[in-house]
Amino acid sequence: MRASCSPSTLPPTAAPAWRRPASTLWQVGVLIAAWWAADQAADALQLPFSGGVVGLFVLVALLASGMVKPGAIELGANWLLANMLLFFIPLVVSVVQFTDLIRAKGVILLLDIGLGFACVMLATAFTVEWVCRYERRLRLKKLLRRRAARRLA
Fold this sequence. Notes:
Order of helices and strands: HHHHH
Structural class: mainly alpha
Largest sheet: none
Distance between the termini: 18 Å
Shape: extended
């Protein structure tokens, strides 16, 4: 099948240059507000885990149900992920303040942090792999249905 250059197949005109940064800023603000609301809810309900975890589950549920489209938060989430290192600077500064603790229990802390980091990375990797395989299966089923429909037509 050949691509044509008729006006009906051309992509719509590009959005103004200011729209992408404004959308990113808006989406980052929405994600921060959602985190804050989830944190307040976790405190009010005295849940044994942080508001970030509550917010994550709520956001996953909203995305899975289709109430929130991935494109509605994609730019903001990508920006936050790209600048994640900035959020760890206060951690590094606080390490300097607790040198006595680090001298006394440094190895134990390092093992705890290392194990926690490894667990988070493994859980993230397995989750991403599972979601990718799931999406591939959905795309394959859709493709097979289309091919079967063409054969019948």
